[in-house]
Design a protein that fits this description.
It is a single chain. The chain has 14 helices and 28 strands. The strands form six sheets. A six-stranded mixed sheet has the order 5-4-3-2-1-14. Strands 6-7-8-9-12-13 form a six-stranded mixed sheet, covered by helices on one side. Strands 19-18-17-16-15-28 form a six-stranded mixed sheet. The radius of gyration is 26 Å and the shape is elongated.
């Protein structure tokens, strides 16, 4: 090449770069690599659209044609991101590989090219579900594609499958990629993925701002989305179907959730096939990039991967460590206004409430107390004052609780300020009905106030007793981190107790459409606590304070395995009354369609490794 020509080519390239017109140079690079600071270019809110689209089974060409029209309609009305349902190009039910073979496409391929033209014209993005064929292996995947103004951006292959598709689909093998776009960092999960908190967490841990969620849900998948948004501090845009295919009814309820787990918009929920809506419904909401940086996303930096190694465990069906027989539990969550720093006053309240509970129900066999039960919350005290309240694990509070346990023939889970080897811990202990301490837990995820005086614990144990089965304990802010309850689930906790001092500093009200749950959630239900129970498939008993100047919000509660399909019933106390809130349940639920056994056996742990890497 002549020097003069080389100089001209270099000059042209520099001019293009200066003008910002160099995306074509990067066309073959992964979307994740195209610039890591997309937040800097984002300032103005923009519209997103959830397309509740109902494809016709086996009619791929017609479905793609109609979905292109609907997507363009949303683009014309200002949507910068459009999300369509799972398997939107073909319909969902296919018996085997032969049945779906005529309708698969590569990604990228013909289908993504059609959407790329539209996305370029409107300078916008679209995510849609489709069956993918991998040319190299001839394997089929339940996948979703992200297409934008720059063309094909990336794809996701569903990680957690539902049984129907397992007859033709291969397990997703891409992990959960996060794509850097003009709108922020976008990740994708599909339907059953949301029943496993890990798939959304993989997106959150990589800094995703938006989770696009194509689904064909009958309730379970979309009900988990407020928790997935909140746990990871990201917007969730979900698109469901609202009709029935081969007897499988999809309930609509396509929605957009804020990073706080607040419902921004929702399409109609249709719980019965007689209500089917076959027409497309488009639901719009506004995303504000200023909300990409938020408190819930900040919690991600406080994760402790060194404690989460057991998330990689996948114990075989003949696990001999699990509880063999269900346990009938009658529990009381004690809810009272603490007298800060006055152990004697608090002990009197505790003893009185336990006596009251036992008189109300002689079957009572478990009592859960709030965080730092005998002292009350100590964040208003200085470290020297807290040190005066601290005691050893076998100190006076332990002796007091042991005496109560023996007197009333109950197990008790209580909190205390522990002093061990010169260090202070926010601790909790389990004492059995014979007065013996069965185990002790030191809070592992400290709040900002905790960090002023306490040292974090370094273990997430599960304890076993003859009366209760296997019990895990979390304290307060531990519940914000699904990894903590996930570890306890992997170690087969039947019950998780959460002593709390909650005044709204995390979590929020449950805002799912009430009709989604066959057994309705009570007023005052809290997303974070429910997510522990559902995510770990362990009955979860929460004890919280009321009142004081800090305005503790009560709502001591029981969260359960599956209220959605009528297995069991969540319950919650009031926000302000002192009481022993009594609940009853049976652990393990071996006959249920989805329980901890099913959860453990179906988790795709091979893809969760990034969650335990330090």
């Amino acid at each position: 090449m002549q020097p003069r020509k080389l100089i001209i080519i270099v000059a042209v390239m520099l001019t293009l770069i200066a003008a910002g017109s160099y995306q074509w140079l990067q066309a073959d690079q992964p979307a994740e690599a195209k610039g890591k600071d997309s937040h800097q270019a984002l300032s103005k809110p923009f519209e997103v659209a959830s397309v509740q689209f109902n494809p016709i089974l086996n009619e791929k060409d017609k479905n793609v044609e109609e979905l292109l029209k609907v997507t363009e309609e949303a683009f014309k009305k200002g949507a910068r991101l459009v999300v369509a349902p799972e398997m939107a190009t073909t319909g969902y039910y296919y018996a085997d590989r032969k049945a779906i073979e005529p309708f698969v496409d590569t990604i990228p391929g013909k289908t993504t090219s059609a959407f790329a033209k539209l996305a370029k014209e409107y300078d916008s993005y679209v995510v849609f579900g489709m069956p993918e064929v991998d040319k190299k292996t001839d394997l089929y995947y339940n996948a979703a594609a992200l297409v934008g103004p720059e063309g094909y951006v990336g794809k996701y292959r569903k990680t957690q499958m539902w049984e129907t598709e397992m007859h033709w689909v291969a397990w997703g093998d891409l992990g959960v990629p996060v794509f850097d776009t003009k709108l922020g960092k976008i990740a994708i999960n599909v339907c059953m993925d949301s029943a496993y908190w890990e798939t959304a967490r993989l997106a959150g841990a990589q800094g995703a701002d938006i989770l696009a969620f194509p689904t064909n849900s009958s309730a379970q998948a979309i009900s988990a989305l407020p928790a997935r948004a909140q746990q990871n501090g990201m917007y969730v845009v979900s698109a469901n179907r609202s009709n029935t295919e081969n007897g499988f009814h999809m309930v609509g309820g396509s929605a957009v959730w804020s990073p706080e787990g607040k419902k921004l918009a929702e399409a109609a929920v249709v719980m019965d096939p007689s209500e089917d809506i076959n027409e497309t419904t488009i639901t719009y909401a506004t995303i504000d990039p200023k909300e990409y940086d938020n408190q819930n996303k900040e919690y991600l930096s406080e994760r402790r991967p060194e404690l989460y190694k057991d998330l990689m465990l996948k114990v075989a069906p003949w696990d001999y460590t699990k509880t063999a027989e269900p346990k009938d539990i009658t529990a009381a969550a004690l809810q009272y206004e603490p007298v800060i720093g006055d152990k004697e006053a608090n002990r009197q309240k505790i003893a009185g409430l336990i006596k009251e509970a036992k008189e109300k129900n002689e079957d009572l066999n478990l009592v859960v107390l709030p965080e730092l039960s005998a002292t009350g919350p100590v964040q208003g005290l200085d470290k020297k004052e807290i040190e005066k309240l601290a005691e050893k694990a076998d100190g006076e509070t332990a002796q007091f609780m042991a005496a109560l346990a023996e007197e009333f023939n109950i197990s008790i889970i209580y909190g205390f300020v522990e002093k061990e080897d010169g260090k202070l811990y926010d601790s909790a202990a389990l004492v059995s009905e014979d007065g013996e301490t069965e185990g002790k837990y030191q809070k592992t995820h400290l709040s900002k106030n905790d960090n002023k005086w306490a040292k974090a614990g370094n273990d997430l144990p599960v304890f076993e007793t003859a009366a209760l089965g296997k019990v895990g304990i979390l304290i307060g802010e531990d519940a914000v981190y699904p990894e903590a309850s996930g570890v306890q689930a992997a170690n087969r906790a039947d019950i998780i107790a959460i002593p709390s001092a909650w005044n709204g500093q995390y979590g929020g009200d449950m805002e799912i459409e009430k009709r989604l749950s066959a057994n309705p959630y009570p007023d005052g239900s809290m997303v974070t606590w429910d997510a522990v129970a559902i995510g770990a498939q362990a009955y979860t008993v929460v004890a919280n304070y009321t009142g004081t100047e800090a305005n503790y919000l009560g709502r001591s509660s029981l969260y359960t395995l599956d209220p959605l399909y009528a297995l069991d019933q969540p319950m919650a106390a009031s926000a302000d009354s002192e009481e022993a809130f009594i609940v009853s349940f049976r652990t393990v639920q071996p006959e249920a369609w989805f329980n901890q056994e099913m959860l453990i056996l179906s988790r795709q742990t091979a893809y969760f490794k990034p969650l335990i890497e330090e």
